[in-house]
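=== RUN LOG ===
request id: a7f3
mode: sequence -> structure
chains: 1
length: 439
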Amino acid sequence: MDGWVLSGILLFLGLAAITVAAFRLRSWRGVRDAKAFHEATFHTSPDAVLISRLDDGHLEEINQGAARLYGYTREQAVGRTTVELGLWENSADRQVLVEALRREGRVDNLEFSLRRQGGELFTGLVSACLLQLKGIPYLVSVTHDISDRKKAEDSLRANRQFLSGLIENNGALIYVKDAGGRYELVNRKWEETTGLVRDEAMGKTDVELFPGELGSRFHASDLAALAKDSTVEQEESLTDATGTRWFISIKFPMQGMGGVRSLCVISTDITERKRLESRMEQLATTDGLTGITNRRHFLELAETEVKRVSRRSSPLILALIDLDHFKHINDTLGHQAGDQALILLARVCQRNIRELDHFARFGGDEFVLLLPDTTVENAQIVLERIRNDLARETKLFTLSVGVSFLHRDDKLEALIERADQTLYRVKGRGRNQLLVEGT
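=== RESULT ===
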């Protein structure tokens, strides 16, 4: 390349194209030879600078930054075209750059896929301009390697896509609220569970979305969690026309842009687990046939009741109720008839006692009734009412009842024992009687 051409190009680069070199100018104030300054600027630029003919891409000059980036020495590159060297992954991209230059005269920060010696691809950000010297158009380009940035952007984009997919397709309800409790994000499960559309929910609070006490409760709960600096785990419920559903919610505050706090919530539906727990508890505390309290649970409740009334010196009555002629029913009518007799007795007793009374199947055909804050006289009225009510329902069997009452410093075991002894006396007298201890 002629010296005057290179000098002109270098001067142009020093004044306009290589802006990164401006800060080095102060260090060269003592340099008298402008050409030496511009050549130094050209070669010390960290980016790749290529000077080529516009029409055919014939390389006239490259700097040291280009040699490092592309892997070709100046001797290997100058005199050959960029297409021959394979600098473009897609050779048509050079024509794209040329056409843009012809339209605009210069371009800034066009992104191309380029190739190093050996075939490794990288992403380059190319800025270029046209330079006319003695009627010959030259293309001056500056390329900055942004491969690392692109990888980071691609990784970030992939992470965002993964996170977005994870949130959107999660089996848990996921939502984000701002510091005022207004929705910023909800996922598909939230829509399915609440029956609301996300576009209608954005920017609104629970008070606006859920009527009555429910919305106020959600709003207050989330604002309280937002005010904390730690993760909160709590059980929540949602009741609508379909019934009540239960959730375990993990709530944690997040620091957003400008220090604005947001609340992220992940709620897992535990309705089936709650129902199973309820059924398990029911099985553990109720009699499978009659549906009333079983012996084990009754003893727990009665123990507590004995302690309570003892502290208050209140009366307490315990009655053991035995179904007469139960064996005869089973033997003559079958066990199914016997089961129906037990169910009938349980139903009759339940409708004649108070909510605070404790009634249970004590075993076989024997039932127990605990009457807190009840005198012997009132207990006899209740028990006679039960016997009369049963007599109206069936003639197949009758009841024998043994009654005991709480003494000072009494224990539950003693109370049950005295009632059992009294019931035994009833059976010795021919059954179908009600007898109180001591009589």
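=== NOTES ===
The CA atoms of residues 44 and 52 lie 19 Å apart.
The two ends are 133 Å apart (CA to CA).
=== END ===
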